[in-house]
Sequence to fold (333 residues):
Amino acid sequence: MTRKSTRLIGKLLALLILGAVLGLAVTLDPSQELSAWTAIVAASIAIAFIVLLYEGLWRLIDWPLRMLLGVNRLEQSHQLEPYDTAHVIASPWPPQPGIRHAVLLIAAYFGGMTLVWIVLGGIIGATATEDPTTMLDLLIPVLPGGLLSAWLLGLICVWLAVQWLRNRRGLDLRKVAAWSKPSLQNVTVYLAVGLLLGLVYIVVGLWLVPPDDSTSSGLVTTAAMESAAVRLVWGVGGVALAPFVEEYLFRGVLLGTVMQQRGVVAAIVLTTIPFVLLHLPETGSYWPALLGITSMAVVAAVARLRTGTLAAAIATHLGYNLMLVMVAMWAFR
Fold:
């Protein structure tokens, strides 16, 4: 896929998601009379206009800037004649992915998700200025759409970043991420391991250390106890989206690049810590949840290292989340 087509597809998908988010947010205003679909279409058209305006202005100023600043070394090397390559600075080929590239992908993923929550949170906060206690009541109806939009926009941002690294930097991340065809045996074994880890967490958490009034939980967990739609979207995202994207980022690219430069032990530690920290908003003050997510991350890293394929880590994460989703669907029905 070419760089231009990648950028175009990514912008169109991001446009649709942001339009849906803004449309859902607009419907929170009790003074407006637009339907949800009308608001989504209007928001999408507004964002499309802004994107096209930006593209047009950039095309107008791109050529003068290039003439003023000059052509960079990479572009200049493509313009050389076949026998003029001696003037090009030699560099290792193919280039190898580094830790900074893994950090870039993780930042793209959570940046896309954060953008959705900023939009929704800002509009809901403006709507509930007179009574801040109504913010949760306003957020729950649009939380399913917000969750799904955040996951999808984060996934699109990762995809665009991967395409950019491949097309502009010549980086192939499949090898360092252990993105290879798995065996059915490995997937089955580690799916069972993930289910067992989830079951152990539930036994320890709900039976031996039951939460009390002083236990805090995240927004999604709190809303899932009240709304079946939130539970459904959370379940779909937790099983069909999060294991694949998060394992690719943490136990895939990040673990692979850190292991090449720092070793196996450092790779497990330096990929588990940020993964756990990013889940703190949902684990809250409940230490069994923190212990559960940490155990799952370590086991997923070991599974990836032992089998040499990322599919084992994905299966572990998927099994863990699947057990939690099944119990939540049964407990909060």
In short: The mean pLDDT is 78.
